[in-house]
Amino acid sequence: MKLDNAFGIHEQALRVRAQRAEVLANNLANADTPGFKARDVDFQNMLKQQMVQPVRLKTTHSAHLPIAGNDLTLNELRYRVPTAPSLDGNTVDEHLEKTKFSENAMEYQASLRFLNGKIQGLLRSIRGD
Amino acid sequence: MSSMKIFDIAGSAMSAQSQRLNLVASNMANVDSVSSSVDETYKSRQPVFQAMVDQMNPKAAATGVRMLGVVESQAPLQKEYAPHHPMADGEGYIFRPNVNIVEEMANMISASRSYQNNVEVVNAAKQMMTGLLRLGQ
Question: Chain B: residue nearest A37 by CA?
């Protein structure tokens, strides 16, 4: 077993869930913004991408060259299909977004548990007890 | 780590919603501010929100919200005949603001609900980050 993939898929899953939390929080923040369209990440696709290219560089200046798969961008998001869009063109359903956010937070905690388990296992084998 | 951005996002929304609450308070406080001409009369003020754009990274997925500005309602003012009112104009009319108190109450409830939603987001994010910090302990 190689040490750099000792944590398996959980490391990438945790990162994708943290990004998803951001996107869902953004939807909730824009619940009253006219014309705002609710977005979500395609989890499976994102996870696949993270497995291929786990390290991403952040651009902090407009002259920085963007690299494919750099930071989470609009290209990686999908628009949510609205159930009841409002007159001002906003498609955020606050209840739906809140349940998705809670669900994602629980999944994040689950990923943390898995990682904790892995770490405890490694520590135990290092100590030999 | 970029996941700290979630606090900025929820924070921007909380600040926008509290500004909206400020405007509601202002509108409700001025519901009886009569005057003697159309131009001088207080007009109902409404906020306009806009999704923020990250200048460094215009394609960023999640950036938060900001208040683009305040617009004054174009609804007609209420003209009232009150010749003995100290603010009455030459023809004996006073003008009342176009504030709809029922609309403002609904607006207030909506704003405070949205504010609460964002507080809950911050709390959940805090729990997530605390869990992450405790990893391996």
Answer: B51
The model's pLDDT over A68-110, given as tens digits with 9 standing for 90+, comes to 444 677 777 889 998 888 899 999 999 999 999 999 999 999 9
pTM, whole model, 2 decimals?
A: 0.85
pLDDT tens per residue, range B21-53: 999 999 999 999 999 988 899 999 999 999 988
Residue A96 lies in a domain: yes
Residue A60 lies in a domain: no
Q: Do B128 and A21 touch (CB under 8 A)?
A: yes
In-domain check, residue A63? no
Tell me if chain A has a CB within 8 Å of the CB of B65: yes
Q: Does B120 touch chain A (CB under 8 A)?
A: yes
* Domain total of chain A: 1
Measure CB to CB from residue A75 to each of B12, B59, B124 and give the nearest one.
B59
Measured CA to CA in angstroms, residue B9 lies from A36, B33, B61, B64, B125 at distances of 15, 37, 11, 4, 11
B51 and A CB contact within 8 Å: yes
